[in-house]
Each structure stands twice: as C-alpha cells, then as structure tokens.
UniProtKB/TrEMBL annotation:
Family note: Belongs to the BCCT transporter (TC 2.A.15) family.
Source organism (scientific name): Dialister hominis
GO molecular function, one term: transmembrane transporter activity
One Pfam family matching this protein: BCCT
Main subcellular localisation: membrane
The keyword Ribonucleoprotein appears for this protein: no
Location(s), subcellular: Cell membrane
Assigned GO CC terms: plasma membrane
The protein's name: Putative transporter
Keywords, sorted A to Z: Cell membrane, Membrane, Transmembrane, Transmembrane helix, Transport
Membrane-protein topology: Multi-pass membrane protein
Secreted keyword on record: no
Transmembrane parts of this sequence: 21-42, 54-72, 93-114, 143-166, 193-215, 235-254, 266-286, 323-340, 352-370, 412-437, 449-468, 474-495
C-alpha cells in the first residue's frame, strides 16, 4: 500500500511512521510549553531512572558493539562486499577516508574540546591525585568518551544499513536491517515501530546537539561583543536564524548546500586546530598525544566495562558522563550511520570496519589532545583561570582562546565554525529524518524539509525553556534506551544475514557435477527429478554404490590389493563402505551413508520443485576414515563412483608416501 496517498498533497512520507512521530513531537512540545516546570521535573526523573536502572545495559551493549565489529573484521565474513560481488567502491579510497574524517567533526568537538578535559581536571574522580595524574586521568576519560566506542555505535548501524541496502537492495532505513528476522513482515507493525523509534531517536538526538550549539553560539557572540548577555529570547533568535539557514541549505539540494558548507567548515576547523597547536607548546602537546594514546589503549578493556558498581560515590559521575554520552551517540546513530553507509558502497566489511572505527577516532583523539591538553597547560600558567569557570561549559572554549595570541580573531572564527556546524548538522539531519520518514525514498518536496526544520527549532526551544540542557539530555536518554535494544537485536540480524550470505556465495558446485558430460543429460535430469526420500536413498546405495564398490574390489584383486565391501541394509539409515585394510596405519575407507537435511518452506511450496514435498530429505553422502567432510553423491553413476574412489585412493597413497604425514596416518588403535 502506498502510504503517501493518505496525505492530501504530494509527499514521500510513510504515514505509518510519520504520523506517530509527529504525535510524539507535538506531545513533547505541548507538555514543555504548557507545563515547563513539571515537564523538566519529570524528564529529569526519567533520566535518573534510566541511568540508575539501565546504565549497565548502555555500557555492556556499546562494548559488545566494539567486539562485534572487530570479530567481523578478523573473520572471513569481513571479505563480504557491501554491494554486488563484482561491485567497485563508489568513491576512491582517499576520498572515502577524507569523508570519514569529515564525519568525525561536529558541534560536539567544538563544545567539549576544552570543556570535558577541564571539567575532569577541575573535578577529578579522585581528589587526592597529583596535578600530573589529574591531567592524565582527565584526558583518559575524554579519550574514552570520544574514542572507538562512539564510532562502534555509528559503525553497527551504518554497516547494517549499507549491507541490507546495497547487498539485498532494500530501502535504506533501519527496519531493513531486521530482514532476517521479519522477512515478508518487514512492512508490518513491528517494522513500522522500529522506524518510528529510529525517527524519534534521531529527532531528539539532533535537537540535543542543536541545543549545545545554540548555547555555545550565544557564549561566542557574547565574547566577541555581538550581544551583551544570554537569556531565552537570545537563544530563541539564535535557533530560529540558524535553522532558517539550514532549511535554505536543505532545499537548495545536498550538492549545492551541505557539501559546500562542509568543505568550508572543514578547512576552518583544521586551520583552528593547527593554530592552537602552533600557538601553544607544540612539542609538549604531541608528546601528550603519544602518552594519551598509549594510556587509552592500555586501559580500554577495564574502561569499556566500568560501571562503578563498587564505588557508589562516583556513580553520579558515571551517569552524568559515560551513560549520557553513549545515549547521545546512540541517538545520533541513524544520522551518522546513514551518512557513512551512503559513502561506503562497494567496500568490503573489513575495509568498512577498519575505516569507520579508526580514522575518525584518531582525528577525534588528536583534536581532544590539542584543545584539552593546551587548555590544561594554559590553566597551569594562569593559576587556574580556566578551571575556575569549569561550570560554564559553553564559555570555556572562548575563555581558553583569549589566553592565546589573536584571541578576538580566533573567537570570531570559532563562532563562524560553530554556526556552520549548526547549519550543516541541521541540514543533514533534515535529510536523514526525511529519509527515515519516507521509508528510504528520495526526492522530497521542499515543504517537508521546511516542516522538519521548523520541528527541530520548536523542539530545541521548548526543551531549553522547560529545563535547559538537562531537559535536552533527558529527552535523548528516554529515546536512546529503546533504540539501544533495537541496535542489539540488529547485531543478531546482521550476523545471521552475513552467515547466510557467506554460505550462499561460498558454496560451489557439487563435487559429483565435475563428472557430468552432455551425453547423459537426460539421465541426469531423471535422477534430479526423483524424490530425495529414504526409499530412493536406499535404492541408490543398493543399486549404484554397492555394485560400484564390488566391481572395483574385484578389479583390484588382479593387482594384489585386497578390498572389502561392507553393506548395512538393515539399519534405519543404510550405508556401504569400501575398505582397504592397512598394516600399522589407518585403513583406506570410502563410505556412503545417508544424511537427513531439513528443507526450507520455500522449496516445499515451490511449484518448480515438485520432487520436494517433505520437510526433510535423505541425501547419500560420502565419508572417509580420516574424518574429512564428504559430499553428496546421489547423482553419480556407477563408473563415476569408481573414479571418485580411485581419486581418493590416489590421494591416500601420496599422503602415506610422505614422511611428514606419519603422525596423522598412524593407526591410533594399535
């Protein structure tokens, strides 16, 4: 059914997803606008309950995402391509790496680049630490929050979107990742609920980021003298103006909008990064980076599973930082995941995992070191002037820049960078929200971009009004918990899909088909048309396999080789063996028994396979004395079985003649 027909105007919306999403947005807007105090209180209560009761699930789930991706990377499943087997990557390697590098940027880096290290440094978990240990611990915790775990969250969702979108040619939406579980019910109620959850999670995740951006933009504009103070009216104006530019960028087209803005902003951000590095103690900062990286690698396992279960005094730190961060990354997963999925077509899973986990992570860690360690260095040089205002997180970046040369210029440039990040984040967010709400369709009408942009602005305003930054974080937490469950199930679906994929594409032709020639094709077709039941399996072993064994045994006697034939026709599953007994080494054995295989519902119901009418089939399979896995032989003729035995016997004699195989062929029963 085309859900878009339910709208009285042209739309790509899937009404089963969009309407519930709009209802959730309206409910939050009305509640926060009409009852700001109560809304803020209940949002905070919900946040406290989630972090206290389910914080462990965030920690365990995200750590499992890292392990899951690394397992895929080192396994043979890493060879699977995100697209058709012969598909080339859509973008050259260096261009792809550059885009992943750009994806690591955002308002968060500008907001927390100075704020988080200084916050951990000013208020350490252990107040008895020395000054150097405080700085080291502050950077370690910062690295943990901005390291591989964040990109594992994005990577899991991005990989699922890319795999099922490009390999199975399904719509690029979250519900497609559940294809192995839902199959033909993908468009049913459960699939819709998954996309509704993804839609709401993305909306509130982006709203939180825009709230950070608005607060820091206000602090920056105050710093450069554009405004005299920051209050709610100023924040409302900042949000409306910034979102308006985002909408203009969105309706101008991705190519003309976000791409050009992203390129400009990336150059400005890299320029600011380089300036901070050169203006501060450059060699010391790079030395700090080396040690920070080593400490991060050394401590990554205990950090990954740290819940402060035995340290309740620091539980508040844990819930306010790590759990909130993981929830924020999870809320952003559909946004960033869809971006990296779109640019990764044609890559192998191994390339995807290595690129997504390590390239942006390395840049994030470099950024945090340059800004964080430089800020700590400035704080030491100025008798704690930065850490003294650690509670004013949105103003810390500008306070830090004021202590470097050209403070006014760099503060102005920072405001421009934050504004552009605000615009590009909202622009890209509008595109992703549109895609989820439209079930992967493209070519959105302009009014839809305007609608979602206005919705983001309205949400950011009412959440800031009802409880400031805490309300934004609480709303993100509320939406991130169910989506975390969605992502955990998604991992199992992805694993299942990859195993089936590997089995399907790695399966070659049956060994017995190597003997086929065109002269007997009618006989082959007749054999294939027989029902693979127990009656025909017995008949094959009795009338084809046993006569082949006996004829070969008789022929071998002429050459002094004694072979015996054993045939068990009385057991439930028949079997026959051709055996050449050996002295002190393992016997040569070529056996054929009957294996029971389950049959798919599709095969039973398939009219083009009338011979398959049961839930199980009985397949004559070869087996050997040395335990090697055999292969189906039911289509072989008598002469072909004889040739196959001789091939295996030739292999056996060559192995016996080689000294290095003595240990394996030695008869362990003697």
């Amino acid at each position: 059914m085309d859900d878009s027909r339910k709208f009285p105007f042209r739309s790509t919306f899937n009404s089963w997803v969009t309407i519930p999403g709009i209802i959730v947005i309206l409910a939050v807007v009305i509640a926060c606008a009409a009852f700001p105090g109560s809304s803020g209180y209940y949002l905070n209560e919900a946040k406290q309950w989630i972090t206290k009761s389910w914080g462990w699930l965030f920690i365990l789930g995200v750590s499992c995402f890292v392990i899951f991706l690394l397992l895929l990377c080192v396994s043979k499943l890493g060879d699977i391509r995100l697209g058709d087997d012969d598909e080339e990557p859509e973008y050259p390697f260096l261009s792809w790496i550059a885009m992943l590098f750009a994806a690591g940027m955002g308002i968060g880096l500008m907001y927390f680049g100075v704020a988080e290290p200084i916050s951990h440094y000013a208020l350490p978990l252990d107040p008895n630490l020395s000054q150097g240990a405080r700085a080291e611990t502050a950077m370690l915790n910062t690295f943990f929050h901005w390291g591989i775990h964040a990109w594992a969250i994005y990577g899991v969702l991005g990989l699922a979107l890319a795999y099922f979108g490009f390999r199975y040619h399904l719509p690029l939406t979250v519900r497609s990742g559940f294809y192995p579980l839902l199959k033909n019910r993908l468009d049913g109620a459960l699939g819709r609920i998954i996309d509704i959850t993804a839609l709401c999670c993305t909306i509130f995740g982006i709203t939180t980021t825009l709230g950070f951006g608005a607060l820091q933009l206000g602090a920056g504009l105050k710093q450069i003298g554009f405004i005299s103070h920051i209050d709610m009216p100023q924040l409302i104006v900042i949000i409306i103006v910034s979102i308006s530019f985002s909408i203009l960028s969105a309706i101008s087209g991705v190519g003309k909008g976000v791409r050009h803005l992203s390129e400009i902003n990336l150059l400005l951000a890299l320029g600011l990064l380089l300036f901070v590095l050169l203006a501060g103690p450059s060699m010391m900062i790079m030395s700090d980076f080396t040690q920070n990286l080593g400490e991060y690698i050394h401590n990554i396992i205990p950090l990954s599973f740290r819940t402060f279960a035995y340290d309740p005094e620091n539980e508040g730190w844990f819930t306010s930082w790590t759990v909130v961060y993981w929830a924020w990354w999870i809320a952003w997963a559909p946004f960033v995941g869809m971006f990296i999925a779109k640019i990764s077509r044609g890559r192998t899973i191994r390339e995807f995992v290595l690129g997504v986990l390590f390239v942006p992570t390395l840049f994030n860690l470099l950024w945090m070191t340059i800004f964080g360690n430089s800020a700590i260095w400035v704080d030491l040089q100025t008798n704690g002037s930065i850490s003294a205002i650690s509670g004013e997180t949105e103003a810390l970046l500008f306070a830090f820049l004021n202590h470097l040369p050209l403070g006014s210029v760099t503060s102005f440039i920072s405001v421009v960078i934050i504004a552009l990040f605000f615009v590009t984040s909202a622009d890209s967010g509008i595109f992703v929200i549109n895609t989820i709400a439209s079930y992967g369709k493209s070519g959105f009408p302009k009014w839809q971009s305007i609608f979602w942009g206005a919705s983001l602005a309205l949400l950011a305003i009412v959440l800031l009004y009802s409880g400031g930054l805490g309300a934004l974080q609480a709303m993100t937490m509320v939406m991130a918990l169910p989506f975390l469950v969605v992502m955990i199930v998604l991992c199992f679906c992805l694993w299942d899909g990859l195993l089936v994929d590997n089995g399907y594409f790695s399966r070659g032709l049956s060994v017995c088909t190597s003997y086929w020639t065109g002269s007997l094709w009618k006989e082959r077709l007749h054999s294939m048309s027989r029902k693979p039941d127990l009656v025909n399996a017995r008949k094959f072993i009795r009338e084809v396999a046993v006569p082949a064994f006996e004829e070969l045994a008789d022929e071998m006697k002429k050459y002094g080789v004694e072979a015996t034939v054993e045939y068990d026709s009385e057991s439930l599953l028949p079997k026959a063996e051709f055996i050449i007994k050996q002295d002190s080494i393992r016997n040569f054995k070529y056996g054929i028994d009957c294996e029971i295989h389950n049959v798919s519902d599709f095969a039973i119901k398939n009219d083009s396979m009338p011979q398959v009418d049961s839930e199980v089939v009985y397949v004559p399979m070869s087996y050997f004395e040395d335990g090697r896995t055999g292969y189906p032989v039911r289509y072989m003729k008598k002469d072909e079985i004889i040739v196959d035995i001789l091939r295996q016997y030739d292999r056996f004699t060559k192995l016996v003649s080689d000294k290095k195989h003595k240990l394996f062929i030695f008869d362990t029963e003697d």
